[in-house]
Amino acid sequence: MTPKHEKQEFVTVLVRDPRTQKEDSWHSYIDYEIFIHTNSMCFTRKTSCVRRRFREFVWLRQRLQSNAVLIQLPELPSKTPFFNMNNPHHVDHRRQGLQEFLEKILQDTLLLSDSRLHLFLQTQLSPEDMEACVSGQTKYSVADAIHKFASLNRRFPIEDEKKKKGKNDADSDSESSSSGLGPSDESISCGCKASPASEES
User: Is 95 helix (H, G, I), strand (E, B) or coil?
Assistant: First the structure.
């Protein structure tokens, strides 16, 4: 193998494991696990796993488009009033569309330079917190946020111990909240649970 082949960069993204999350007694939504595996120098972490809902993808696309006006961004799967979260075909069709969207985004070097994309893919921060972080209104940097999330989210290989530890360290949640990075995401399995946001499945 030539050195050129050895250093070839790759980014693998999987959108998988749709789950219904309860927002309140009347509203539910579906979120999706986003798994990233890469050797790209563009990424702070080489492996990550977060959960995001459709409305957060909409936010990401809007922000990327506003920062790269000359690029024609790929479309998201269309939002339809006929979407039924209890219909596996509807859910899987949307999941496939979200994966195709991310695959295309991750092929563009200009878009890869946008910090919002990295926070979206490698932390569980809300859109509001991502905006604050990118604009320098937080005590933590983009890299800090990604490392903090990774340190709280070590499912690979010892998930059971993590769950036990999470019960014992319940009081430590307030500590991580005071860091400005939000809740400790202990409950994220693979880590993944939705970041709290409202409406839109």
Answer: helix
